Amino acid sequence: MYKSFYRLAENPFSLTPDPQFLYLSSVHKRAIAYLNYSLETQKGFSVITGEIGAGKTTVIKAVINRFQDQARVAHIINPSPEPDQLLRMIVKEYEIRRFCDSLSRVELLDL
User: Is there a single domain that holds both residue 23 and residue 51?
Assistant: First the structure.
């Protein structure tokens, strides 16, 4: 309804975050700068935290889009996995090993 009323070409309020509609506040710019630095210098991994609807996923998608041809990026959505569950998610995201559910923590860390 508002799309036709405001003569919008696309729906800016979809349920899935779209980096095309990212509003770059000073906080978002700083988060992107930190993520860019982390990826450009290959300094470990980064964690983004914030309130629901703050734009975390949209920021991450924007950065992933920028680096998709240069780096392998794992996007873990679960907000608070157990340590072993987090390791399994990382292994699966990076496609290191297809079946890792039966591996111990030590075996996961050795991958």
Answer: yes
46: domain range? 1-73
Q: What is the DSSP string of 26-62?
A: HHHHHHHHHHHHHHHHT-S-------TTSSHHHHHHH
Q: What is the pTM of this model?
A: 0.66
Cβ(35)–Cβ(71) under 8 Å?
no
Which candidate, 62, 69, 53, 66, places its Cα nearest to that of 20? 62
C-alpha–C-alpha distance, residues 60 and 85, integer Å:
21
Per DSSP, the three-state class of 73 is: coil
Read off the pLDDT of residues 1-34 as tens digits, 9 standing for 90 and up: 678 888 888 887 777 888 888 889 999 999 999 9
Joined together, the tokens standing for residue 76 give: 């873990």
